[in-house]
Amino acid sequence: MASLELHEKMVLDGLEKIKDEIPFESPVNPVELSLDSEIQFHCHKGVSCFNECCRNIDITLTPYDILRLKRRFGMSSSEWVNQFTLPYPMDAHEMPGLKLATRSGTTACVFLREEGCSVYEDRPAACRLYAMGSMGVRKQGSAEVEELYFMVKEEHCKGHEEPRKLTVQAYLEEQGLLEYQEFNRNWRDIVLKKRSSGPTVGKPSPRSMQLFDMCSYDIDSFRKFVNSPGFTEVFDLEDEEKKGLNEDEDRLFQFSCRFLKQVLYGEQSIAVRPDARDRRMQRRKPSGAATESGGPDQG
Ligand code: SF4
Ligand code: SF4
Predict the structure, then answer these.
(1) Do the beta carbons of residue 171 and residue 135 sit within 8 Å?
(2) How remote is the CA of residue 54 from the centroid of ligand 1, in Å?
(3) Whose CA is nearest to atom 5 of ligand 2?
(4) Is the model's pLDDT at 68 over the cut of 50?
């Protein structure tokens, strides 16, 4: 699998800039591909390298990867994350990230079987995109984050020698990636914004990083959080909206991104009770203890 670490280094710099940074022997082909670009690639069970890419993995997981896979296994998000992932810092401020676990003592994916991927229908976005790479780039003067694509040609991968040609757009559709991109878009924007703000914003508080961790990778805890008295004391959600969030996990995740944008970047989209701060101060007074029972100070 292509190293996503390298992709991180590229984020926001644009392809022109990164050409110089790519190691001489990198499998990354730094030619920007548009959705209409034609690529030559076909991975199928008949290729001589079948399963080769899954024997040496370095896969960063996204929130939607985790939602799909934890549902497949009928597990809670924390159970699934504990069993099948490894934590890693996404940046110098230790923004929490997760990598897909490997089989004990090997570099092979924990889901690899002789007959192929055992979670194929719910395989992560990075597996779907390979043998392409992508990165979100905010071009100068634009507020929009644009997705750029490029080929990753690793020597062991014979899919590049197969005669099939198709456009990038057709490949993304074939691999079911559009749904993943759509779902992860807001979260990706949060990560990019944090990275691009760099040291000017300073190190986020441990509390902010805990919230990022929960909102990104632990939807079950986030649901409890949204239903907690502390959250209700600060945020003003209609009963109907709360019901919808409790019934629809995907919708709850999108809400968690709105919540994160509000907490991390002050982008207000969730109504805050006007008296939230006073009520919280009031509650703290008698005991004098500064215990956090729910949301951050928003009042
Ligand atoms: S999840 Fe499936 S496709 Fe992805 S690395 Fe593991 S075995 Fe391969
Ligand atoms: S063609 Fe490439 S992506 Fe497909 S199995 Fe072989 S190494 Fe993996």
Answers:
(1) no
(2) 5
(3) 50
(4) yes
**For the CA of 159, the nearest atom of ligand 2:** 1
Q: What are the structure tokens assigned to 266, written together?
A: 């002050």
**How confident is residue 222, by pLDDT bands cut at 50, 70 and 90?**
very high
Closest CA to 75 of 184, 239, 176, 219: 219
Q: How far apart (Å, rounded) are the C-alpha atoms in residues 183 and 65?
A: 10
Mutation pick for ligand 1 pocket among 1, 58, 123 (CB with most ligand atoms within 8 Å) = 123
Show the ligand 2 pocket: residues with CB < 6 angstroms.
Answer: 43, 47, 49-53, 130-131, 156-159
Residue 137: the pLDDT is: 79
Cα(47) to centroid(ligand 1), Å = 16
- Is residue 26 a contact partner of residue 71, using CB atoms and an 8 Å limit? no
Cα 35 from Cα 18, distance rounded (Å): 20
Is the pLDDT confidence value at 156 over 80? Answer: yes
Angle at 131 between CA 129 and CA 137, to 5 degrees: 60
State if pTM tops 0.90. Answer: no
Mean pLDDT of 173-183: 96
Give distance in angstroms: CA of 51 to centre of ligand 1: 8
Nearest ligand, measured from the Cα of 41: 2
